[in-house]
């Protein structure tokens, strides 16, 4: 620890990682995307079918969302690779040493919600495994429409026991992932899980479609959903759901271990490749169920439990589903909020304590209740709301780091109470004003402003929030710039 560093701003877990642990090369970085492209990504493709799009439209919209994500994602990851910083410490440079708590706690709230939803999805897969072994999976075959709420209502005791068990397993893995050692358990998952994920999902897809060749032909020949004014809100909601808002904000927590910028960029190519592929799997499989039953089954585990009738095959697939979705939850929804806690209380919290807190909160927060109400409700409420919160933050980050700072930071001042990033008493007024105004615009319909333009901005929450915040931040930086807010630094 540098003698100029403040104990409230520094501890070993949030310090820049040492060069000797910056050893994540092409494979683990690429592999993180492959492993996160788990069955829950198939859920996105399935949702597109439920929303009324055909398979080709779903794939094109998903690819569009992936490509939109890629630009801010690479810009975000550049700072992590170059300086070895996690996201909360990078945010000190654009929100202030104390203002960083604002994006950190927004991200924390989002991650905790997704933690519950993802844990629910893992629980479904493990439940399916148990139901297949005990012969109870056939009960679902009697139902034309199979939904997550049906599964929970039929087997409530099994659900809750499994849910708590998954929480415990995740906690053990996270406790072993010490950042000061380069997160060895996460790096190991980065090497192993991608190929487990892609192989298992590809096998599942090929086997599934082979069972229903006639339905596959019909599914691939469904008519296009006509693009009209009435479908624009649904189109925007689905497009936003394919923009990886949480990953853009959270990716530095993993990329800080990257070897160099070149390795990071190559690793990011995994996003459009793996995600689009897996979304296509989900879309085609759900389209087949719609042909078979006139009701599209969208839940990835229920697709297996309900439509694969050979128990041994179903068990094999559900075991892999369990591992891949567990891995996704750890990378996406547990590691980032632990960094957020450590950033807020660096002198009080260790990695172990942060893990325990996250586990407890994950049990207490029940965002999966929206998922239980149906896929459209889940996408049009939770995902849209979280995207609206994170889009403006991403806009500020890109505007500040890429345009104003031109990819240069003063690393020592990130940990100083009186440095370049103190701004106004530890807060950057430009960032805060930008966030407030953007939130007021994007979420206007939530407090009674029902004009069509505001409804469209809400439905395009991440896109509209990003663009508005990006422009507003640059404009306000010119209008409100004050020498007292930002001390000049020789970079």
TrEMBL record:
UniProt topology in membrane: Multi-pass membrane protein
Gene3D superfamilies referenced in this protein's UniProt entry, alphabetically: Hydantoin permease (1.10.4160.10)
Stored InterPro entries: Pur-cyt_permease, Uracil/uridine/allantoin_perm
GO CC field: plasma membrane
Pfam families the UniProt entry points to: Transp_cyt_pur
Compartments reported by the entry: Membrane
UniProt similarity note: Belongs to the purine-cytosine permease (2.A.39) family.
Protein name: Cytosine permease
């Amino acid at each position: 620890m540098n003698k100029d560093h403040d104990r409230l701003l520094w501890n070993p877990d949030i310090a820049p990682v040492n060069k000797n642990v910056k050893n994540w090369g092409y494979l683990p970085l690429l592999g993180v995307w492959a492993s996160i492209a788990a069955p829950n990504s198939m859920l996105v493709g399935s949702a597109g079918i439920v929303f009324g799009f055909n398979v080709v439209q779903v794939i094109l919209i998903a690819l569009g969302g992936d490509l939109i994500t890629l630009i801010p994602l690479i810009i975000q990851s550049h700072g992590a690779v170059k300086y070895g910083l996690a996201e909360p410490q990078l945010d000190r440079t654009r929100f202030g040493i104390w203002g960083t708590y604002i994006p950190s706690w927004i991200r924390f709230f989002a991650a905790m919600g997704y933690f519950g939803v993802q844990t629910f999805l893992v629980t479904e897969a493990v439940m399916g495994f148990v139901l297949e072994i005990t012969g109870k999976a056939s009960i679902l075959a009697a139902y034309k429409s199979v939904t997550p709420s049906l599964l929970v209502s039929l087997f409530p005791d099994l659900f809750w026991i499994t849910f708590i068990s998954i929480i415990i397993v995740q906690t053990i893995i996270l406790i072993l992932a010490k950042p000061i050692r380069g997160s060895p358990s996460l790096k190991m998952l980065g090497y192993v899980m991608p190929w487990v994920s892609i192989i298992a999902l590809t096998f599942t897809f090929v086997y599934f479609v082979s069972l229903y060749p006639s339905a596959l032909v019909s599914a691939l020949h469904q008519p296009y959903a006509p693009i009209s004014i009435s479908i624009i809100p649904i189109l925007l909601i689905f497009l936003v759901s394919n923009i990886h808002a949480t990953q853009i904000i959270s990716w530095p927590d993993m990329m800080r271990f990257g070897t160099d910028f070149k390795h990071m960029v190559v690793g990011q190519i995994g996003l459009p490749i793996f995600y689009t592929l897996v979304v296509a799997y989900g879309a085609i499989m759900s389209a087949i169920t719609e042909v078979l039953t006139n009701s599209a089954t969208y839940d990835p585990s229920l697709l297996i439990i309900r439509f694969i009738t050979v128990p041994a095959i179903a068990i094999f697939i559900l075991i892999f589903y369990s591992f891949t979705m567990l891995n996704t939850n750890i990378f996406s929804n547990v590691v980032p909020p632990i960094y957020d806690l450590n950033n807020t209380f660096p002198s009080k919290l260790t990695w172990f304590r942060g893990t325990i807190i996250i586990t407890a909160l994950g049990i207490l927060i029940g965002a999966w209740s929206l998922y239980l109400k149906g896929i459209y409700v889940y996408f049009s409420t939770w995902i849209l709301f979280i995207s609206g919160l994170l889009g403006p933050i991403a806009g500020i980050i890109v505007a500040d780091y890429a345009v104003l700072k031109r990819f240069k930071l003063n690393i020592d001042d990130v940990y100083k109470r009186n440095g370049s990033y103190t701004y106004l008493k530890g807060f950057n007024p430009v960032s805060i004003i930008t966030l407030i105004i953007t939130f007021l615009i994007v979420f206007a319909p939530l407090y009674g402003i029902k004009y069509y333009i505001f409804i469209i901005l809400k439905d395009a929450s991440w896109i509209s929030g990003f663009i508005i915040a990006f422009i507003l931040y640059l404009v306000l930086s010119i209008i409100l710039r004050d020498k007292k807010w930002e001390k000049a630094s020789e970079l």
